[in-house]
Amino acid sequence: MLASGNHSSYPVSFILLGIPGLENSQFWIAFPLCAMYVVAIIGNTTVLHIIRIDHTLHEPMYLFLAMLAITDLVLSSSTQPKMLAILWFHAHETQYHACLIQVFFIHAFSSVESGVLMAMALDRYVAICFPLRHSSVLTPAVVGKLGAAVMMRALLLVSPFCIMVSRMPFCPNQIIPQPYCEHMAVLKLVCADTRVNRAYGLFVAFSVVGFDMIVISVSYVMILRTVLGLPSGQAQLKAFGTCASHICVILALYIPALFTFLTHRFGHHVPRAVHIMFANLYLLVPPMLNPIIYGVRTKQIRNRGTHI
């Protein structure tokens, strides 16, 4: 059934199928997904709690880590509860506006996550290349402004997704063949020319990821040059160690994200079940791994965590 708005007719609700091709296994697939979600919630909440109560951790690296933890909590919680309800309880229906809200949260906070990782790369660059100026360059005020800029970028770039889609007519088909709403999946249900929407989606994806990856890459090239110029091998090893966890987090986000993005548009021969599983992992693996990676590799958080 279609509802009429000022500018378009839109469905009252959509049907989210879950994981097409794996219907008989969905009930059991939900258990590891639930376990990963629980680890993400506990891990990121623990990291936030440790940073909040330990004033010695109120430094740029840990403030950015707190931003990353908040982003991961929002990103994973925007998809997983509904996904588990679909896989376990067959709650396939989702309201139209709830679907658009989910589109916004997924894309906005994916952009925020990428931006926070870029800011963390800048922090490592200043800390290693200009150690004596680190505290004066990256003051709490500057860290706050970087966080606000990353959030504002996400709001300004992603809001048009929902605005443009909400003004377009939808076809009678209301089935989304995956367990959550995202921009391209909803766009495929529109009965109108969507070239502008698709072009804008590509522009946002490449501008956000492209800009952030360039800044991250340049930061690490400069870090590498500085580290290789250090006189002792022990100092080099220590400097590399401070960056290793950040590089692991970057890879955990960008590899599945790029696979999902490219297969949605160009990977027509990739089995749908494989594509959807990667899409789920892209929204769940980084939030689960980030607190584990930083908790294990960051001495201050690891030591503080053992006393909680």
TrEMBL record:
InterPro entries: GPCR_Rhodpsn, GPCR_Rhodpsn_7TM, Olfact_rcpt, OR51/52/56-like. PROSITE patterns: G_PROTEIN_RECEP_F1_1 (PS00237), G_PROTEIN_RECEP_F1_2 (PS50262). It is found in: Cell membrane; Membrane. Keywords: Cell membrane, G-protein coupled receptor, Membrane, Olfaction, Receptor, Sensory transduction, Transducer, Transmembrane, Transmembrane helix. The keyword Ribonucleoprotein does not apply. Putative odorant or sperm cell receptor. This is Olfactory receptor. It comes from Felis catus.
